[in-house]
Design brief:
Length: 364
Amino acid sequence: MTKPNKIVHYPIAGLPDGGILYLFYGSPSSCSNKLVLMSAGFPDDEEIFLPFASRLSKELDAFVGVTCLPGYHDDGDNKSWTRCKKGGYTFDEMANAFGEASKVLRKEYSLFCSSKDTAGGKKTAKLIGIFHDWGVVPGLIWANMALQDVPPIVQSQQAASYGSNESDILVAPPDELVLFDVLLPPNPETGNLPVVKRGSLYEKFIALSYRGIFASCFMVQHYLGKAFGILAFLIGMMVMKVFQLSPTYDIDAQVIKSRNPPMDLNRMIYMMYPYYQMFKRGRKWLEDATLPKDLSQMPVLYMYGTDKRIMFHDYVSKKLLEREHEEGRSKSNAVAVENAGHYLYSDLQQFQFCFDSVVSFIDA
């Protein structure tokens, strides 16, 4: 595992120190003006993003924090998840966890810069949120809610300052977002949306099928126990294989198989709780998880792998980001990554292309 410079904790629902943040520092001789908060989704903890974060800290001279969804972290004993909420976490609780992580990230950055800033000056830093898979949903909820809660003067500055006003440090929203392979609908208040053909019935059927299977596995484990959960999982995987219901291909299966040691099956089933929460919340599950209303205020880079059975993006949002780029409205964009799947940023797929694209977006 790529080793971070420091590991800190933050509160999540029900556990005052249940969240974990792996910190990677930039140059020890300077205090970067770039903060990055990263989180993946199912079935990944923080480890999947550590190589990417380490490179960002070194080549972008960024102060990077990597976390994961509540309950996804493991201390190496395959038991950490058993201390978390048995029914999983709601999307609001996931988003609040990201908010707490961003507070800790800004505090740690403040301490780091205070120790390096011998001139005693005041520094500013922009915050970039980088999310993958289920991390995108609470990531967007957190970003949108932060924009609503921050006073206009802080929003206009879009920067975290250290030294004199800690409240501004803690509440400032992200300045930019990078979303890997999952893209949600536009903000309902966004006008003049592009008209495009939406996903096919086949895509909707595949999406409903595999999500329903994963949600069912979690429910069986939660209500009937681990043994029945594993049985439900094995049956579900057999159904997905026979009827080709998996949304991804072998290119992504190889990334999961490369994990060493392999993930405990009971833990993986517990990590399916976002699918359960999706069905439990019904049509309202995407209510607050949308693109920012003003993409010039909070630009979004969306990157997706093309080697999948179905895409995980909203087609209107994808076209909207492409139009932003083509017409120069903002630095937002949607980028297709060839010869890559769901784990496009993995070193087994297109790590370098994704890394270069993210660095160019942040530096633009």
